[in-house]
From TrEMBL:
Keyword Transferase among record annotations: no
Gene assigned in the entry: grpE
Region annotation Disordered: where it falls in the sequence: 1-47
UniProt KW keywords: Chaperone, Cytoplasm, Stress response
Comp. bias intervals (Basic and acidic residues): 1-17
Similarity section: Belongs to the GrpE family.
Main localization of the protein described in the UniProt heading: cytoplasm
Compartments, as annotated in UniProt: Cytoplasm
Protein name: Protein GrpE
Native source species: Zhouia spongiae
């Protein structure tokens, strides 16, 4: 027979205390784990909210950039359509100049029918080009010289004091297509 040591009252109390302490630690550990889980869940939620806010900001910026791109390309397309015929118009300007010179010379002759025919052709060509947006830059002797609009061929001493800094003679007409000047008027101005 084996002898079991007798459990004393203090040993039993120690075991009970130990069990109670273990249970308390277990409860405290579970509470701590619950708090950690709650803190982890809250920090995960905050992280996800921040990520969502960043992605939303990226999306809004990208959307705004795309809208600006659409506006810019449509504006460029409109400009292209307005000035698509610019090369053709510039090529036609010497023809208009030739018509002007021809009209001056034909007016000197006796043949009025020839003058009338050339006038009709000249006017028809001008009307077609004006319909496509070509405009004459109105410049005449006595107007103030503007370096942004006029192209000075030469400067001469002003014939009178009132022509100083003003246009004395127009050598070649200027034209614009829409708002863009495609040929500046060539002028002589007084100094």
């Amino acid at each position: 027979m084996s002898k079991k040591p007798k459990e004393t009252k203090s040993t039993v109390e120690d075991k009970d205390t130990t069990q109670v302490q273990d249970q308390a630690q277990q409860v405290n550990g579970e509470q701590a784990a619950g708090k950690e889980e709650a803190v982890t869940e809250v920090s995960e939620t905050d992280g996800l909210k921040e990520d969502l806010a960043k992605e939303k900001d990226k999306f809004l910026r990208l959307f705004a950039e795309f809208e600006n791109y659409k506006k810019r390309t449509s504006k460029e397309r409109i400009e292209l359509f307005k000035t698509a015929g610019q090369d053709v118009m510039q090529a036609m300007l010497p023809v208009l100049d030739d018509f002007d010179r021809a009209m001056v010379e034909i007016a000197k002759s006796e043949d009025k029918e020839l003058l009338k025919g050339v006038e009709l052709i000249s006017n028809k060509l001008r009307n077609v080009l004006e319909g496509k947006g070509l405009e004459v830059i109105e410049t005449k002797a006595g107007d103030t010289f503007d370096a942004e609009v006029h192209d000075a061929v030469t400067q001469i001493p002003a014939p009178s004091d009132d022509l100083k800094g003003k246009i004395v003679d127009v050598i070649e007409k200027g034209y614009k297509l829409g708002d863009k000047i495609i040929r500046h008027p060539k002028v002589v101005f007084g100094q």
